Records
---
Amino acid sequence: MDVLTTIQLFGGSKTLAKSATDTTGRITLNGPVGYTSLQVTLTGTGTGKFEVLYSNDDVTYVTPTGVVDIVTAHTVGTDIYKINDGIFRYMKIKATETGGVNPITFTATLAVQ
């Protein structure tokens, strides 16, 4: 039987000032990972960008060649984004307010199979 785990990221509700960035702590991917998704709910009038960083050594986190941002322009509302980039041991999610004018408040939940 496949196990689905959900993780509330950024300690719950998070506010980023205009042009600010924050990154989650390490997320350990135990065993073979099937499908992964990120649910984002955003309020406010800013724009959010969410990207994934991977590592196999838990020292250096990068966006591997060929991996694209999860979403580059998430505005108010809720959506779920599919993340299936390959086999990695660790990951982090990076959030950035990209509108440059207004802050964003968001919640982000990661689901890993």
---
Amino acid sequence: MIHTRLLLCLALGLAMPAMARPTFGFDVHVDTPLGDLKTDLGGKVGGGLSFLAGFELGRNLVLRPRLDLDVHPVSSFHRVGSHYREQVELDSVGLGADLLVGLTGTRNRGLYGIAGVGAMRWFQTFTATDYTHSTSSSDTETRKNRLSPWAALGLGWQFNRLVGVEVREVLSRYDSPQGGLEAPFTDVPTEARNASSLQAGVTFRW
């Protein structure tokens, strides 16, 4: 029994150096809306930040869990002759994972394909701000929108061990109130809309 335990510990000790350590990082990207999302946003470009972890599954395969935070501007209003401003946003928080498949080169340099799935919670946020020389006020109201699955396909290029670029098309669903996203805080019927966006960003890992 003791010999078996010693052999098991020795085998694990020999195997651990061969296992690649996980990588951690983030990416900063712009969101170009497509389809229904483009219509509801009036074509406005958004942006986001993603937190990433990478686990090597094989020579050309990496599993990459991700947490995504994205902001899509809907509309803004500025009252002439004052500092009063209203702003409406459609925001999302996503959790999921990508599978990265190396197509050329090595893990630290070359082209790779991306396929991902996960879940995404959408939010509608209304912010009103006003200030004078002596006082200021700010009021924010956020309502939960649809919780939807998301799927993504894309390509990436790794320049070196630390920096790369990616382009992903992400598909999901959100609710658009009757009359559009510019009035999201009235109790009106909603309809499910297709949320398609083209994300282009820079990735950093260590």
